[in-house]
């Protein structure tokens, strides 16, 4: 089956963050392709990628970038279906530069922006977008949400039972 | 046909902004419901809304809120399909408070955030999400994008023809 | 005697900070319960908690959360007595996101916000709120304040006696 | 009956904002005193005020100030019961200066901070603090919360009935 | 003679600002072309523009844009000679979003960024770049700088002569 | 008697703010000179001014500037006695740019920075610096402080007497 | 001879920074006292300190504090001669909170603010203030400035001689 | 051949960053001089440098500085050809102070500002400015851009071949 999600990032230094998008898509059994592509360093390659993305069968593009982050917005300028932007944290400005460069798009070219370094949520959002027309995927998403809830419940029970001092000792 | 998009806002003072989401959905012939609902002032009503949204047939929720804006994130905590958040501009902080309250969601509960006051883009993003499985809608979205391009082209031609001084006189 | 203060946090990673609220309440002999509860990952559990809090005898809720921090504000939307919010420091934005998400509440739903990571002050503020109708607790709070003053006085004396170079050597 | 809440502000230019605290306390039938007092321009008068506040019967102090806003924090340094701080919006920095000067208090001296210009919420929070030991006041607070909810419900109904275009026309 | 400077902007709403670049180039007798071109709304047109710019004889491109401002950076990704970016002031964030989106470029793709709304300086900088190999233009630039100095000197003399009260009366 | 304070500003558009420094010095009977001088547009004139300032008898320089505000810091690089910097409010960034450009000086070249648009305080600070060795001036400063206190006291009395509603009516 | 400068700080954790003020005053042979004093934890002690400071012979007070930093401003409210404020860097907000709390003082109560952690400059500024009426001290300040210049000149020469690669190797 | 680019920095602590400008100029075979020069600590030396720069044959100056960074702007006030400013990252404010001090220049004195710590781009921009009249240099710049593209392409291929897990293992 053809991949439905394209994951791209401006630099391989973003991979430790962006791989979280791949992991959640793996978990939710959503096919994806992932590559490094720089709108700045290889504009032609990027243009070809974005222009052919619909034809290749992508339904959603997830783009991560940091600093003056143009990859998500430029993808959204070319690809007609949803583009999700992941602002990568930066050393000097903490990622506010990435966030503003991605979220403050002009009318007509939306980028669905998630939190700074929020690649897991980007993957999950891509899955939710596909789940609009895929009831089985929606069930898997609900099961994932239930597992998150169970995780917190278990921690709550443990904290109530052990007390905070014992709990914190175990954290270390 | 049942509405596929639910548009909610925390206060009717957000309506002049949020109505832009409705306008673009009207243009793209996407059915929607729109109401005022406050997660803070009527948490029970809000909970019922969010819980029954899937059953009612909504595929996407667009939530606009300002300041400590919890409506989009709390919707995403309950509704399993995509939630789009619109940070409303605020008087004191320009909407940075709204933006941070909406975009900085924890792992597992994404909100697809658009620009401050970016309600038009929220509506368009909702349409793009639905267009993933609706080729006719996708065509209408492409036609809309083409019309934006034509609009800029016309302005470019006019500016090149008139020169900036004459063009600016006509702007006033 | 029933606990008068409920301490909640969105994630157990907040515990090293939030435990400072418990410590000061221990010192001031104020009963409290503490648990992990996520408004985002377990909205139903959270709603039950907030709705039953008055009945359980809580007079104050202390809620700590980071990023798009909705736990304090949503608690204040449901629980009718004072809610104290603790913005947790975040890696990317230093906790400005948490602070804005907690303090910028709309009219009608106040959250008593303390400093970023200010959980000790949250516990102390809860005690001060209870001390409004508990003269013995008020005395204990005054004694605590006196001890803080004595601590600074001792340091001042030592610095004046040793000089800054010797004092700084002892600090290491 | 003696006033239980003292409302102070650094300048009479803060009165249009700070009067909202008085209005909600009037509505909730809570006695208060209100005056202008400057920690900077009349430190002696301020010290006397803060030191005698407990004796005069105040249970809560609400202090509003803008810029390098020291009034709330200095009140909290002297008065042993809860102090609520209202950061006043400023022309140059929007009130971020006021907010940081009030909320970022050191350990041991909490100020219960509300939103920028959030004087209504300050008054309501003072009432909630008093309601911890005043069941009748708690009922009045609940009734006020219900009225807020009804206000939003009425707007929601009207919007659903009229549609957004008609609703917006009526807004003007 | 072919134009040496291309001035582009993302929207004609930027024209009142961007026209300042044209005015100073007119004054300094530097040939330029000016048009509206949107990297987001007409990516193909933009790509053709940027790719053919060298061939057309442009030596410098001045690009103004606001919000998630990608026009300057994408121009710099394609055009091999200097690109000057003008961050346009925005309503919500004052232009910090535009500034970060333009200045925080990754290694290898510099954009020479000027102040928010600093289009006059962008034009002057373009002239200075051309003046590196055009001594006559350099002389005109020096004459312009001298005229600025004379302007301030005249004001200084007037202020020293009239005193501030009379001077301010004349300002109104 | 020679003027002891030199007041300079980067542009005559700063005069409505900077004149407040002159007014308070007039009130406190401190001699000053005031002129417009641009470190950027007339660096030679500025250098001569700063270098000859000690010889002319200035004991303090007050420098106001906005944006990338270099006038105060460059004055402090040349003039060996105290330099007071006034950050002028800016349209795009509210004066944070001016503030950072003035206050964040490197070791060895202090600028005594006051609030954004705080020219009155700059004048008063200059007077306080001179009052260190001028007991009569110190008395005039104390009298001014007393008058500020009386002003607030009068407002406090009026507010306590009239109530806030009547007081606010009179404000309009 | 009595000390002319009082150095105070809100906490002994500020000593490693504030000691730089003492060091430069030692170097310039200016007498000072230094102690820890908390406006928040010991308001009475602080008030006595500030009130008696003139009588004790202080001509300048240097006050360092972090977060909601009230020590400099409250000192300036009581002590009639110059007060210099040192904003201490903070973990969450980098010291912007300290800076705003110190610099944004209202009309009538100036604080001469230096850079975040700029205690050396605070000491130097205090010396410059005293040097207004002490020609010998002024000479020592000029000699110190000359030594700074010589330090940079030596580095410049070395860099020009060695080249950057060799220079950087020696730095490690 | 005389150097065409002058690289200056306010302190040798900036050298590890500023050396990147030298490295790229070395790579592109552009002659440059590099030294340490402080506008604040040695204003006379700085003035001589800036005034004689044109005569010495410099065509571009690259100036790096941090905090209240005046070196780039003051260079631009004196040197008539392009000045490129590099904002150096700072500990407290991440370099926002440096950025604002450099980029927010008034009309008439542009500084071509690059990213925080963006010295490599400053060097590359200087080369692009010279390449406007040097076709051979332009070819070398294009070859450098091609090498950047090839670098990303190689990484993309490797990631597509290895998958993200294997790729990330090799990164460590």
Distance between the termini of chain A: 44 Å
Number of domains of chain A: 1
- Give the proportion of residues in helices of chain A: 40-55%
Count the E strands of chain A: 5
User: What is the CA-atom radius of gyration of chain A, in angstroms?
Assistant: 18 Å
Shape of chain A: globular
Oligomeric status: homooctamer
The structure class of chain A reads: alpha/beta
What spatial order of strands do you see in the largest sheet of chain A?
2-1-3-4-5
CATH class category label of chain A: Alpha Beta
What pattern of helices and strands is seen along the backbone of chain A?
Answer: EHEHEHEHEHHH
CATH topology of chain A: Rossmann fold
Low-confidence stretches of chain A: none
Organism (chains A, B, C, D, E, F, G, H): Anaerocolumna aminovalerica
Keywords (chains A, B, C, D, E, F, G, H): Isomerase, Purine biosynthesis
Pathway (chains A, B, C, D, E, F, G, H): Purine metabolism; IMP biosynthesis via de novo pathway; 5-amino-1-(5-phospho-D-ribosyl)imidazole-4-carboxylate from 5-amino-1-(5-phospho-D-ribosyl)imidazole (N5-CAIR route): step 2/2
Family (chains A, B, C, D, E, F, G, H): Belongs to the AIR carboxylase family. Class I subfamily.
Overall description:
The structure is a homooctamer of 172-residue chains. With 172 residues, chain A is an alpha/beta fold. Chain A has one domain (4-133): 3-Layer(aba) Sandwich (Rossmann fold). The first copy, chain A, is 53% helix and 15% strand. Chain A is built from seven helices and five strands. In chain A, strand 1 (5-9), helix 1 (15-27) and strand 2 (32-36) form a beta-alpha-beta unit. The mean pLDDT of chain A is 97. Chain D binds chain G through residues 10-11, 38-41, 43, 47, 66-70, 73-74, 76-78, 90, 93, 96-97, 100-106, 108-109, 111, and chain G through 10-11, 38-41, 43, 47, 66-70, 73-74, 76-78, 90, 93, 96-97, 100-106, 108-109, 111. Chains A, B, C, D, E, F, G, H: This is N5-carboxyaminoimidazole ribonucleotide mutase.
């Amino acid at each position: 089956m053809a991949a439905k999600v394209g994951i791209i990032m401006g630099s391989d230094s973003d991979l430790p963050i962006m791989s979280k998008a791949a992991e959640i898509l793996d978990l939710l059994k959503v096919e994806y392709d992932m590559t490094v592509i720089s709108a700045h360093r290889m504009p032609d390659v990027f243009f070809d990628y974005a222009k052919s993305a619909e034809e290749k069968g992508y339904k959603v593009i997830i783009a991560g970038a940091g600093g003056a982050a143009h990859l998500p917005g430029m993808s959204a300028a070319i690809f007609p279906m949803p583009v999700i932007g992941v602002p990568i944290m930066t050393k000097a400005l903490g990622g506010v530069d990435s966030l503003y460069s991605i979220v403050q798009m002009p009318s007509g070219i939306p980028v669905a922006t998630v939190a700074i370094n929020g690649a897991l949520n980007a993957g999950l959002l891509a899955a939710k977008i596909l789940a609009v027309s895929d009831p089985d995927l929606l069930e898997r998403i609900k099961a994932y949400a239930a597992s998150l809830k169970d995780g917190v419940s278990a921690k709550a029970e443990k904290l109530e039972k052990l007390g905070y001092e014992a709990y914190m000792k175990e954290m270390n």
